[in-house]
Amino acid sequence: MDLFEKCESYTEAREAIAEGYYPYFMPIESTDGTEVVIRGKRLIMVGSNNYLGLTNHPKVKEAAIEAIRKYGSGCTGSRFLNGTLDLHEELEDRLAGFMGKEAALVFSTGFQTNQGTISTIVNKGDVVITDRADHASIIDGCRLAYGEMKRFKHNDMKDLEKVLASCQPDSGKLIVTDGVFSMEGDIADLPGIVELADRYKCRVMVDDAHSIGVLGKGGRGTAEHFGLEEEVDIVMGTFSKSFASIGGFIVADEEVIDYIKHHSRALIFSASMPPSAVATVIAALEVIQTEPERRERLWENTRKMRKGFQEMGFNTGESQTPIIPIIIGDRMKTFQAWKMLFEEGIFTNPAITPWVSTVDPPVFGH
């Protein structure tokens, strides 16, 4: 069999394009955050992760421009060698202080952050336990790890306890969960997870990609939302959402960060975040801390949107956050709804397998 036979037989995307129902890789020509221009047409953007509207904040943009003037366009090396700027260390210090942890470490992408962290700390003889709805970067991190991977039913604490009871008592154990689930929009049962982790002597890692800047009184995410900041061992976050940039980070105890810093292949063998991206995040963090009204407005909009959808009879599932799915239940109807809204000037995200489970109906939003 020829290696490329699978590529030649894959025609689904081309067929969708020919029929006018292909919604992905849409080239955006310009954007001000709330609206985008695609193929000369202006649309309202309701499918973005720009939670706090910081991608066009004057302070954020100016920080990126000034960083390019001072440092140039990139570092041309990994953090381990020549790619660490004073900006990277400043950002890590600020993130650790903001999140209330001893230390922080930034990666070039959010995907690499989960992949590089989990695969580094879960070794042979260890077990990593994940929610079945966890992000793909968590799953790939588990697959790269030398330890055993186990999964529990989405947000089901009884099933999590069964999985934990099946583990060897003397094995190292890590429970990894999304804080806010990116397709469902619901929040992890962190109190339940922490209680079981304490009982079964596990460590806890929370992926707060969709939580930091959104949940908690200070915008510090799921642990702050539940008052469990001391009980969570590792918090992961991304810069491509509330922070209006690209990259990712973890915060944890200093010795944990030091170990990952010197062993994670995803960090050591990747070029570091460019200066403009780092400066953007520093500026965005300052805005998050000094302009809480942005988060308040986000939640006002969230409540208004969810209430409106529900009053119109749409199924928004278990959403508790600004991620509001409209569950349709049919793949083709999902694409038809996307096309209808696109033609009416509204940009949305149709989500089907592999973004949502094959046992769940397709979702449309957020």
Write the layout of secondary structure elements.
Blueprint: H1 5-9, H2 12-19, E1 28-31, E2 35-38, E3 41-45, H3 58-71, H4 86-99, E4 103-107, H5 110-121, E5 127-131, H6 136-144, E6 148-152, H7 157-165, E7 173-178, H8 190-199, E8 203-207, H9 222-226, E9 234-238, E10 248-252, H10 254-263, H11 265-268, H12 275-290, H13 293-311, E11 326-327, H14 331-343, E12 346-347, E13 350-351, E14 363-364
Helix pairs in contact: 3-12, 4-12, 5-6
Give a written overview of the molecule.
This protein is α/β, with parallel strands linked by helices and 366 residues long. The chain has 2 domains: 5-55 and 293-364, Aspartate Aminotransferase, domain 1 (Alpha-Beta Complex), CATH 3.90.1150.10; 58-290, Aspartate Aminotransferase, domain 2. It contains 14 helices and 14 strands. It has helices at residues 5-9, 12-19, 58-71, 86-99, 110-121, 136-144, 157-165, 190-199, 222-226, 254-263, 265-268, 275-290, 293-311, 331-343; strands spanning 28-31, 35-38, 41-45, 103-107, 127-131, 148-152, 173-178, 203-207, 234-238, 248-252, 326-327, 346-347, 350-351, 363-364. A 7-stranded mixed sheet has the order 4-10-9-8-7-5-6, sandwiched between helices. A 4-stranded mixed sheet has the order 1-2-3-12. Strands 11-14-13 form a 3-stranded antiparallel sheet. The longest helix is centred in the last third of the chain and has 19 residues, at 293-311. It is globular and about 55 Å long. The model has no long low-confidence stretch (mean pLDDT 94).
